[in-house]
Amino acid sequence: MPGNRVTMADVARRAGVSPTTASFVLSGRTDMRISEAARDKVLEAARDLGYRPNVTARSLRTKSSQTIGFVSDTITTTPFAGEVIRGALNVAREKEHLLFITETGGDRAVESDLVNALLDRQVDAVIYAAMYTHYVTPPRSCTVGAWFCSTAWLQASTLRP
User: Which residues are in the HTH lacI-type domain (predicted)?
Assistant: First the structure.
């Protein structure tokens, strides 16, 4: 399917404008002098072609993936768990982020793999929610070096007594 994706260049071609003009219009830039007619052509071409922005390309430029990882040992049907997930979803949506929900099943190896997979996808933050209080070891990339990992711990602690 990625080979069939409509690109900004396709939109520019259809609208008869430069790719730069199409980019300015589609990104909502209003500080550039673009005629209303050109703007309308770009928006119409984008709509007709079914253009969708490439969020991966945008994340490289903005240094934000607009995604949050949610790691839980057990996704349960308890009212508390449901409210935690709903709250995380609501806040993510308010901040125009997407929430990736993962479940470890209580397996430390799976937990490590999932957290690393989320970090590999450049999530902006990780929420760790556990059903029962226990200790976890955050990935080294979240605790050492220049790379920063925003993390919220619910029912989990990184500090041992």
Answer: 6-62
